[in-house]
Amino acid sequence: MIAPMRARPPAALSVLAVCATLAAFTAVPAPLSAQRPSTWRCKHVLAEDGTSWREDQVVTTLLDTIVSVRPARPDETVDRDFGDAWMIPGLIDLHTHLLLRPYNLMTWDDQVKKESDGLRTLRAAQHARLTLLAGFVAVRDLGTEGAGNADVDLRAAMDEAFVRGPRLYTSTRAIALRGCYGPDPLDPTTKKGAQTVAGIDEVRAAVRAQAAAGADWIKVYADYRHGKDGPVAPTFSLEELQALCDEARAAGRPVAAHATTDEGIRRAVLAGVRTIEHGGGASEATLLLMQEKGVVLCPCLAANEAIVEYAGRKGPVVQRLNTARVGFQRALAAGVTIACGSDAGVFAHGENGREIELMVDYGMTPAQALAAATSGAAQVLGAADLGVIRAGARCGLVVLGGDPLQDVRNLRRVQAVVRESDERRLPW
Q: What's the average model confidence in pLDDT over 335-357?
């Protein structure tokens, strides 16, 4: 059955507002032209320092750019007045897996082995929408976990505006050492959750192939279990990791490294990666090395908590949560730059803000944690025009029902998300 086509509205919104309380995209009054600026009034707008509020401000946007931020004028008319609310820059999550769903719904092995790439991609579109509704306007997706280059397809769909979601930074298949990544690591006939390679030549070829396929980042597993039930240990040699980073640098792609052991982290840092994912096992010396080289930690605290929760908070898996907490606190004390990376997909998409809450629970101030998910994360992406509300920045505004600098849980109270729009980006 073919449904009748809906008539296209004659005018286009210059900005899209998303009302999270309704869990649906809602329109604001449509300007006469897609080129007409839109104005948004809010009682509290986060200042560029990330620690204070500008009071009673009007933010003017034009398509995907903030044109101005200024005090409101008496009795002026704006396109939308959010009233006594708090406006922050759109949030950023540097470690997601949009092609995964929570492991308590289906195990990781079964998702990779039993579900089709098509089904997982269709589901990922809904995951992207939920992520945006939660206030995250950009994500770095660190591996499709067996779904090939589906993240590149999802990014193209969002660029064409028939899928709603955050800006998507892709890494396609990720790279792991042969025999160290599942499902069934030692069985070459089983579909794997990453591109498995061995030796410098294969490492270089994988980087070139993933960059050519559309990866914005290269993700490598610098340590992992050896075999099905073996211990976690470094995978690639320092020389192999250096070759990987060298090839990625030639292609203009930064590198993110999954690493949990001290030696795996150390090798990745020496090789030239930009971020360490997880990183709980870093020694004081390795943390100092990270700090000296400006390597950023994305701790994935929320994923660890979820895995412990799925296990009923019993058994040896509980140590995983303890290691993550202690590792985070040591990195914070050592002055390592920490950015928000949650590993969403292990747990439900749209719950990404749990990572920021755990950062505060483990020792950050709310302002530090908010910066880790806005301006700090934007710096990791090389996107200085994200993560801040100022003239010239890209539009990505989140309106909250409470002050997140007083209580970080107010990040859950999303009232609206403002993103760019043109003729194609009309509300559903």
A: 98
